[in-house]
Design brief:
The structure is a homodimer of 294-residue chains.
Chain A (H helix, E strand, L loop, with lengths): L1 E5 L3 H13 L4 E5 L3 H9 L5 E2 L10 E4 L3 H14 L5 E4 L5 H6 L9 E6 L20 E5 L6 H13 L3 E5 L1 H29 L3 H7 L2 H6 L7 H10 L1 H23 L3 H11 L2 H20 L1
Parallel strand pairs in A: 1-2, 1-4, 2-3, 4-5, 5-6, 7-8
Antiparallel strand pairs in A: 6-7
Helix pairs in contact in A: 6-10
Chain lengths: 294, 294
């Protein structure tokens, strides 16, 4: 099977690593604008060969893991080139626009719109790891618009690399993901900004901040090249989540200002319920660790 | 040495575990309003005996790790009881009020005001772990007001359990800590609240949220009983940090609204600088892991 990966970073690179470990006769071709990334991917064994766009005609599977604005240009061009039974999957974090852009494409049925909830704050080929997708959710949008045979093939691969599948329409996907992912990134970036602005003396942050701060601003290490187009594409939903978040912060501030600490206590106690929710997420992660430990 | 720990939870319990592993002839007495916690602490070997307040007269060292509002009542009473050469340390996350409340106490020189930056989102005696303080910063306030002999003894203990020392005045402490710790907790609690309000169907959060969300809302698991009095005592500073955080969020929202994605990119790129800051924090954590691994 000839697999072409467009964008050989954390997601693309981890995908090829897993694919090679669960399937035989996989030959991986890498396409990336960044020559250094391509060279590194070759060196790390994420890909077997560098490739050009025109070679996509040979592909049995194309996996796209590039910024979501670039995807809007690249996906139609990929579909134009690939052969009849080639499957094209994209891994972007927004789904509404990309589904729209290929809605009328003659090869729409070759495309599967998927979003693996497996990102980290790291990026580039050196961030790729085996097992990244194990016990992670893969959200598939508009599954009914993909050819049935290709759906089957995709599900086989996702199952083999350990992913759980969840089906959603693109608009619900973008709305939910704004809450559980995009907002976290903004809250983290702005927290980092607020502290960096205040603590001009960085030695102070080193010394005074603990693991709690580190955890809360972890996502502020994320790649602006990846996240700017996400916020642009998901503008409406992201602004709505931001409005609600800001309202909640203002309300909390008001309660402090009014010395209403009984209500401050209750607010936090109610939100403690997030423990059980996080236990659910961690339980998935634990499975992963146990299974990897085998 | 007779050590009395008042409040035998994460911090108090971890302190006694470390103390016992670095010093000989340590006898630990536990005082806690919560009878279950006391029983658990005894069972876990965090303390050797339960004790009453009146027994504090026997103490060579008193370590207080209780909510910061309770401390304001308890510390003067402890100082009233303890003998001349007893050292009293409190571990609270705010320092201005507690230093004020004992400023004129006849035994002020027996008190050392310290804040170990070692908390986690967990609490209670079952959260106590050996090595919690290794390579963590201990902020000491108004060191000059503590008897020199007791300072020496305290530093010996802190050094033995692996802590770095940083001296600060209480008012600077509370201002800095509002940024690098208290604000993180509020941002996390309000993020958790925003998502819980929106995602009534919790299965959705389980399925859709990844490790990024888990990391950003981790602190929303923290104890309201501990955090409410912290926000009350540090009201002025906390409100200031919140104002700046809200301003930054609103500015980010405005940039999105105006489609100024160049500036969105730059905002994130500038804040990426937090990577180096976090590397500093993690480097300390790595030391810990390496040394524990010995």
């Amino acid at each position: 099977m000839k697999v072409f990966v467009i964008g050989i970073g954390l997601i693309g690179g981890s995908f090829t690593l897993d694919l090679k470990s669960v399937m035989e006769n996989v030959e991986v071709y890498g396409i990336d604008e960044n020559e250094e990334h391509l060279a590194k991917a070759l060196e790390l064994g994420l890909i077997d060969k560098k490739a050009q766009f025109e070679e996509l005609i040979k592909a049995d599977l194309v996996y796209m893991a590039i910024p979501v604005d670039t995807s809007l240009n690249v996906l139609p061009r990929v579909l134009d080139i690939v052969k009849e039974d080639c499957m094209v999957i994209d891994a972007g974090s927004t789904k509404e626009e990309i589904c729209k852009i290929v809605a009328e494409h003659p090869k729409r049925r070759n495309y599967l719109s998927a979003h693996p909830i497996a990102g980290t704050e790291f990026s580039g080929p050196t961030a790729a790891v085996r097992g990244l997708f194990k016990n992670k959710t893969n959200i598939i949008c508009e599954v009914e618009k993909t050819a049935f045979k290709l759906q089957e093939r995709a599900l086989e691969i996702f199952k083999a690399i350990g992913m759980r599948i969840r089906y959603m329409d693109p608009s619900s996907h973008d709305r939910h993901i704004a809450y559980v992912s995009h907002l976290s990134h903004i809250s983290s970036f702005m927290l980092g900004k607020t502290v960096l602005e205040k603590e001009k003396n960085e030695r102070d942050i080193f010394d005074l901040a603990g693991s709690g701060f580190a955890s809360t601003v972890r996502l502020a290490k994320s790649s602006p090249a990846m996240w700017t187009p996400i916020f642009r594409q998901n503008k409406k939903n992201v602004m709505e989540t931001l409005d609600e978040y800001i309202l909640n912060l203002k309300h909390f501030r008001k309660l402090i200002d009014e010395d209403n600490f009984e209500e401050i206590f209750s607010e936090m106690e109610r939100t403690n319920h997030i423990r059980e929710v996080l236990n659910g997420i961690n339980k998935n992660e634990e499975f992963k660790i146990v299974e990897n430990g085998k």
